[in-house]
């Protein structure tokens, strides 16, 4: 765990702070959102006014500890030390300041949750990733990462029969079809411009398999920045849609009978300027071995909702088996062949979606991969077929959130990495979600995930 920043460091002029204050004044920013991701995978926060921004950049905004025991249905869970007594501060990272083009007059910063004395708080998800990055650096490595999200674009309409609101897709275009490009064009251009304004470099875009389904990827970045980028991406995808009287859902399966939305996680490990995943390296194999060994438990963090497991079905290109393979899109871990002579090899973790807290997800992946390197874990054979065509040969991923949570509780490495307060809160929140949705029908589940993610 990081030490508390010294008073000397706190009082030193920070060029990021000066830049934030100058930009807020020059650009007419009235509200600055301090954002964080909770254990339910929900992006939450509070906002400071411009008049109090200089002060709040130093003190943060007061916040109840109980919010990290809140599930995605806004049901507060009983977790020791996360009740009505206790206070943390939402402390923004000034280097992450971005205007919000979809919300004129507003900006955002990604934030840590800290104790009132400024020390790291044991339930902060962003701190978990920062600590994982530091552990990796101590071993001599850095991780570059990028989420590859899909989402469903359409309109949220009342159910004529009086049931839950429906998500009606924008189109019925075919996968990669030109009509899909044209139908979503105005939205897509506004989204790209909004993302680029926030420093997220757009890589590529295309209409995906399902009705109204879109895929737009942004450039890789160091691990913490990649997770921050994914938070901004989620907020921007939905915010731009709302400004255009549409609705965008990044939920894993907002429509039961249509393709699911993943957020595949792309990874490459570096030692200074050298990509350690190049040339079939032993280190890459060991990293994969760590992911494979911990994959059932990892799934509880990378696919963090009940709805996630509607997507993780065999023969849907979503991955349902704990295997790896070169350019195998049915494998949980795809070894991606480089693009052109200058392309860099990377790994793609397919059981990953946008209902997960990206800080917990990516931090856990780092711990698992590093465990594989330290113990020189063998990933097993590379699979060059759809694993579902060989019944009984390969280990199936958990088929429900409860199964994944059972695996997480049994995984000593990840439980230790999460720490007592964080793991207690996460398990309580996720167990409560599993129980709440088990007591309801499918339309209830689909509606609430479409609404929240």
User: What is the average per-residue confidence, as pLDDT, rounded to a whole number?
Assistant: 94
Q: Evaluate the radius of gyration.
A: 21 Å
> How far from one another are the termini?
30 Å
Which class do the helix and strand fractions yield? alpha+beta
Major sheet summary line: 11 strands, mixed
Number of helices: 14
- For the record, what is the CATH homologous superfamily label of the largest domain? Glutamine synthetase/guanido kinase, catalytic domain
What top-tier CATH class of the largest domain fits best? Alpha Beta
The domain tally reads: 2
The stretches of 5 or more residues where confidence is low (pLDDT under 50) are 1-12
Helix proportion range: 25-40%
- CATH fold call of the largest domain: Creatine Kinase, Chain A, domain 2
- What's the number of extended β-strand segments? 17
What best-fitting shape do the alpha-carbon axes yield?
globular
Task: Tell me the fraction of residues in β-strands, as a range.
Answer: 15-25%
The CATH level-2 architecture of the largest domain is identified as 2-Layer Sandwich
SSE arrangement:
Blueprint: H1 7-11, H2 15-26, E1 31-37, E2 43-49, H3 53-59, E3 61-64, E4 87-92, E5 98-99, E6 106-114, H4 125-138, E7 142-157, E8 166-169, H5 178-183, H6 185-197, E9 202-207, E10 213-218, E11 221-222, H7 223-243, E12 247-249, E13 263-271, E14 274-275, H8 282-302, H9 308-311, E15 324-326, E16 333-336, E17 346-349, H10 358-375, H11 401-410, H12 412-418, H13 420-438, H14 442-452
Parallel strand pairs: 1-6, 15-16
Antiparallel strand pairs: 1-2, 3-4, 4-6, 5-6, 7-8, 7-10, 7-11, 7-12, 7-13, 9-10, 13-14, 13-17, 16-17
Helix pairs in contact: 4-10, 6-7, 7-10, 8-10, 8-11, 10-12, 11-13
């Amino acid at each position: 765990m990081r030490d508390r920043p010294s008073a000397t460091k706190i009082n030193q002029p920070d060029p990021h702070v000066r830049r934030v204050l100058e930009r807020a004044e020059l650009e007419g920013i009235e509200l600055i959102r301090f954002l964080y991701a909770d254990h339910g995978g929900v992006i939450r926060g509070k906002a400071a006014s411009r008049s109090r921004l200089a002060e709040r950049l130093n003190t943060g905004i007061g916040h109840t500890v109980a919010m990290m025991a809140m599930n995605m249905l806004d049901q507060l869970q009983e977790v020791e030390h996360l009740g009505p007594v206790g206070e943390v501060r939402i402390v923004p990272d000034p280097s992450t300041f971005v205007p919000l083009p979809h919300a004129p007059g507003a900006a955002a910063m990604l934030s840590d949750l800290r104790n009132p004395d400024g020390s790291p708080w044991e339930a902060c998800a962003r701190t978990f990733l920062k600590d994982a990055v530091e552990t990796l650096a101590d071993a001599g490595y850095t991780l570059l990462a990028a989420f590859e999200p899909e989402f469903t674009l359409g309109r949220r309409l009342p159910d004529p029969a009086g049931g839950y609101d429906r998500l009606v897709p924008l189109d019925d275009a075919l996968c990669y079809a030109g009509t899909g490009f044209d139908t979503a064009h105005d939205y897509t251009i506004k989204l790209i411009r909004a993302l680029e304004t926030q420093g997220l470099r757009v890589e590529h875009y295309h209409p995906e398999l399902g009705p109204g389904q879109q895929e737009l990827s942004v450039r890789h970045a160091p691990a913490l920045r990649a997770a921050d980028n994914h938070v901004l991406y989620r907020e921007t995808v939905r915010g731009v849609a709302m400004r255009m009287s549409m609705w965008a859902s990044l939920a894993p399966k907002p429509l039961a009978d249509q393709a699911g939305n993943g957020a595949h996680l792309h990874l490459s490990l570096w030692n200074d300027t050298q990509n350690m995943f190049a040339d079939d390296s032993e280190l890459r194999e060991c990293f994969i071995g760590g992911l494979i060994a911990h994959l059932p438990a990892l799934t509880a963090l990378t696919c963090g909702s009940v709805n996630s497991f509607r997507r993780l079905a065999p023969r849907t290109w979503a991955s349902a088996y704990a295997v790896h393979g070169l350019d195998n899109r049915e494998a949980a871990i795809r070894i991606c062949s480089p693009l052109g002579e200058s392309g860099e090899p990377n790994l793609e973790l397919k059981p990953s979606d946008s209902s997960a807290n990206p800080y917990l997800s990516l931090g856990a992946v780092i711990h698992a991969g590093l465990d594989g390197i330290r113990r020189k874990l063998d990933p097993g054979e590379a699979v060059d077929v759809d694993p579902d065509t060989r019944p009984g040969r390969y280990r199936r991923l958990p088929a429900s959130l409860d199964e994944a949570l059972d695996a997480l509780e049994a995984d000593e490495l990840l439980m230790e990495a999460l720490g007592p307060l964080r793991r207690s809160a996460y398990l309580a929140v996720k167990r409560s979600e599993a129980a709440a949705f088990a007591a309801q029908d499918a339309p209830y589940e689909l509606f609430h995930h479409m609404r929240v993610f």
